[in-house]
Write a structure and sequence with these properties.
This protein is an all-alpha fold and 197 residues long. The chain contains seven helices and no strands. α2 crosses α5, α2 packs across α6 and α5 runs antiparallel to α6.
Length: 197
Amino acid sequence: MLLVIFISFVVLDIHSQNWDINTLHQINSWNSKFIRNYNKGISQTEPYIAIGIPISMVAIAWINNDQNLMKNAGYIGTSVAGTLVITYGLKYLINRERPYESYPEKVYPYSKEHSPSFPSSHTATAFALATSISIKYPKWYIIAPSALWACSVGISRMNEGVHYPSDVMAGAAIGAGCAIANIYINRWLNRILLGVN
C-alpha cells in the first residue's frame, strides 16, 4: 500500500512539473514587440506601485489629518509588507531554482533574478495590494484595474522567464491570503496603537 502511495506521488509530481514547465514555455514564447514591452513594463511597475500607493496614502492622510485614511494606509501597507516577509522567507526555505536555470533549453530569461524562484514575490505583493485596496475601497473602478494589474504582473513574470506558473499561483494565494488575514490583525493593531476600533 505504501509503495502504491509513493509511486502515485512520484507520478503526480512528474506530471505537475511537466505542466508547470510546458505552460511556462508557452507563455515565455509570447514574444511580439507589444507583448514583450507590455510585460517588461508591468513587471517593473510592481515595486513602485506596491510601495508607492501606501506611502502616498500615509502622506495625504498626514497632511489632511485624516485618521480613517491613515488607518486604511496602515492596513494596505502592512498587507504588502507582511506578504513580502512571508514570500522571502519561503523563497530561501524552499530554495527552488529559477526556471531558466533548470530548463535553459526551454526558457529564455528576458531578465535575471538573484533570489530563489518559489513563490513569486512580485505577484504576491501585487495581489496583496490589489486585494487590500479592493477590500477598503470596494468600487468596481478600483477592483477591476487592481485585479487586472495584479494578474498582469503574474503573467509578466512568466513571460520574462523568471517564474513557473506554480510560483505565480502560490504568490497570488499568499498575497490575497495575507490581505484577508490582515483585516483581523489590523483591527487588533488599531486598538493597541491608535486606540480606535
